[in-house]
UniProtKB/TrEMBL annotation:
SUPFAM superfamilies: P-loop containing nucleoside triphosphate hydrolases. Belongs to the ABC transporter superfamily. Residues 8-229 form the ABC transporter domain. GO terms for cellular component: plasma membrane. Keywords: ATP-binding, Lipoprotein, Nucleotide-binding, Transport. GO terms for molecular function: ATP binding; ATP hydrolysis activity; transmembrane transporter activity. One of its GO terms (biological process) is lipoprotein localization to outer membrane. InterPro entries: AAA+_ATPase, ABC_transporter-like_ATP-bd, ABC_transporter-like_CS, ABC_transpr_LolD-like, MacB-like_ATP-bd, P-loop_NTPase. Transmembrane segments: none annotated. This is Lipoprotein releasing system ATP-binding protein LolD. Pfam families: ABC_tran (PF00005). It comes from the Bacteria.
Length: 230
């Protein structure tokens, strides 16, 4: 893969906690991962293996103890905090297991707000928000607050919010993990359709092997390192 086709590159990522203590925990031990343009990668790992830590580092929400993070060929570790913030806001979308929607705002407003923070005009932000809600099948719920939405609807709004600023990289941490199997399958279909239609690159963490098999390839986090899964 040429460097111009790389959307995300993690090289030799190490991360530990309780530094210098006898009970120091090494979560990542030289993890390497390259994600190409338009590629959807399943990150498979049991709970506690460090997948959330890896995604937070990839999404510039945390910093590694060693190693290098590059997004779109730009090495982040050498950039200022301000530059990292700009890249995180414009280039990376993040979806959590629990939606983290702002309860006092409607579904549409939750999608509009990050666009306004990035300088998008309100009318354009609302148009983008409605387009995204329509793409995941919940346009009629635009004016509802999160408490009036089902779990699956809330997570679809979270998907739309992550896509609002047209990122090039989507990172999702067990995005359907708190949903029942039927809803999980339906919501995952909506997510994959949205990703494919926009040509995004994505890393999606899941412990559901059936969902993982529907992505382009699978990698497993095992003892702090990533290895391909056949």
């Amino acid at each position: 893969m040429s460097e111009s086709d790389e959307v995300l590159r993690l090289s030799g990522i190490e991360k530990g906690y309780n530094h210098g203590e006898p009970n120091e925990i090494l979560v990542l031990r030289g993890a390497d991962l390259t994600v190409g343009r338009g590629e959807v990668v399943a990150l498979v790992a049991p709970s506690g293996a460090g997948k959330s830590t890896l995604l937070h580092i990839a999404g510039l929400l945390d910093t590694p103890d060693a190693g290098e993070v590059a997004i779109g060929g730009e090495v982040m570790d050498l950039r200022s905090d301000r530059r990292r913030t700009v890249i995180r806001r414009r280039e990376v979308g993040f979806i959590y297991q629990f939606h983290h929607l702002l309860p006092e705002f409607t579904a549409l407003e939750n999608i509009v707000l990050p666009q306004l923070a990035d300088g998008v005009a309100k009318d354009a932000a609302e148009a983008r928000g409605r387009e995204l809600l329509d793409s995941v099948g919940i346009a009629p719920r635009a004016e509802h607050r999160p408490a009036a939405l089902s779990g699956g609807e809330q997570q679809r709004v979270a998907f739309c919010r992550a896509m609002a600023n047209t990122p090039r990289l989507l990172l999702a941490d067990e995005p359907t993990g708190n949903l029942d199997p039927t809803t999980s399958d339906r919501v995952f279909d909506a997510l994959m359709r949205l990703v494919r239609e926009t040509g995004l690159s994505a890393v999606i963490a899941t412990h559901n092997h059936e969902l993982a098999a529907r992505m382009d390839r699978r990698v497993e986090l095992d003892e702090g390192r990533l290895r391909p899964v056949a």
